[in-house]
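Teaching note: in complex prediction, the entire set of molecules is handled at once rather than each chain in isolation. The prompt given to students was simply: 'Predict the structure of this complex.' The entities are:
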Amino acid sequence: MTRYIGTGEMADLLRREGAEPILRRLVAGLRSDFRRWPDFDLAPRLANHSAGGVIELMPIADARSYSFKFVNGHPGNTRLGKQTVVAFGVLADMATGYPLLVSEMTVLTALRTAATSALAASVLARPGSRSMALIGTGAQAEFQALAFKTVIGIDEIRLFDVDPAAVAKARANLDGCGLRLVCAGSVAEAVAGADIVTTATADKARATILTPDLVEPGQHLNAIGGDCPGKTELHADILRRTRTVVEYEPQTRIEGEIQQMPADYPVTELWRVLRGEASGRVAADDITLFDSVGFALEDFSALHCLRQIAGAGPDLDLIPDMSDPKDLFGSVFSRGAAFERAA
Amino acid sequence: MTRYIGTGEMADLLRREGAEPILRRLVAGLRSDFRRWPDFDLAPRLANHSAGGVIELMPIADARSYSFKFVNGHPGNTRLGKQTVVAFGVLADMATGYPLLVSEMTVLTALRTAATSALAASVLARPGSRSMALIGTGAQAEFQALAFKTVIGIDEIRLFDVDPAAVAKARANLDGCGLRLVCAGSVAEAVAGADIVTTATADKARATILTPDLVEPGQHLNAIGGDCPGKTELHADILRRTRTVVEYEPQTRIEGEIQQMPADYPVTELWRVLRGEASGRVAADDITLFDSVGFALEDFSALHCLRQIAGAGPDLDLIPDMSDPKDLFGSVFSRGAAFERAA
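The expected output is the structure of the full assembly:
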């Protein structure tokens, strides 16, 4: 049977385990999987576009496991009272090809994105970082705040969004979590003196959320909102000053902030920094950038982690129960009875 | 919510509706979808290989709907008492990107493969065809027999398989369906005088199930067993004599019988014959060949047909229920309660 985890069980599981413990487990799994990057069979994501949006499949496999995520992106959905992004994923066994787990991944993607951001910051941000500006307080915001608190030790979050209601929402959701929450009046106010700057805006265009004059030596930039062709958040002049780390270079060249830069713009893949094969931050006043677009390995890792945390539970009957593998027909129709209606 | 159809409901549904009525509906849907071929956004299938087999994703979309199938192929599974091929599929709405249906597709694939074979034969076999040789009586056999009975009017099936138990299984399953069943002692005996020859063997190598001396003028060959690189059923000299029709040329060049032929070997895509833009059979003594490997459009069509037949039923909670699309965190954690455990 194939284990099923829907949005209801996912919410129960998060409430039971707590967001921060799960984020810590996700970071541990991600670190371990990123460090064995060469074990993976990487495939490009497959996209089908329509006027209103895109549907993508993101597969990946190692010798033992296979996963894929189904994810859409439909900016107009909010006008219909629907979500822009909905995702679900599947984990399968490479030895048999059988599906092991079908899970919702809308919430899980937010968790794994935040965990990946914090993992990258653990090797890129200045040691002892305590304050983070959070520009864009939409669906990702609270997950980012909690991941940086629990993994990096951030104790102050400066919130800014062009939508005051979104700031109020994030502030209310984070109230009581142990973070000092500052509502900034501008991007500049949020960023000034922050150790880390996270941009998580949803602008569907070339936007300039962050300009070069705002960025300070030593800051770490965690840019997660520029994640598809034509969608960026940082002024190109910032990229000329940063040491830039990406997940999977061929994908980020198309989808990330660096789509603004020439093809020879230097980047380092995160797994190489995590393995100690490349340097992340070299000097205290380096400006580091994690140009994150989201990668299939993160979903693979998150699905494995979830499967372990969730344990036994509801199953789907996606695999026919057959005593004789050649007798698919007989597994459906008992002999003699198949044609009473059809004949 | 997303409608779910597992193997249990699929079997109930087939028993309730009858195999033949469902095959007829599938053929009607396939004909209509193949005839609007230019409406579809075709993508290559995405494969991840391991030592034991392959896992593939097969996506396709038109302006309104999207579908993909997950399907594995693990020849060693039978030794573990498991099936070689297991499949499930998803139908989604292109306007919102939301998943509409998750369904088992192991049985549905057998049905759509048989329906596609019969649809192709309806424009390729001689009018008035009555007898069919069925070489290879494994998991596909009964579905093929019933599709050709109900769509083409075949009344005699000559069964042959190197495994006598497989022949006995197919014969027992088809007993009472209204077909005259002949157990042939050899491929030659099965093929001699047959109007249609279906090859559905599972050899995982270049095999020569059918040799040129056996094939008679006017016969229609329905070759469904040669369906991946390195796996063929027909002697190359047969292909030099046939008018050959395929589903999607770029895929069949790699996976079909015609992988044995040079790149300029002439083929016609089925949709063009169904639209009347190309000819299938021209003369009564033409030898026609449908070199079938299975294509994403067939799954798309079958999932739509299934969704219509099945109506309302069990749902999966794959889409988070959120009043505020920016408040993913709040949809999981009620305010204030999120950190009792985590803090």
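Point out the following to students. The first helix of chain A runs from residue 7 to 17. The first strand of chain A starts at residue 2 and ends at 5.
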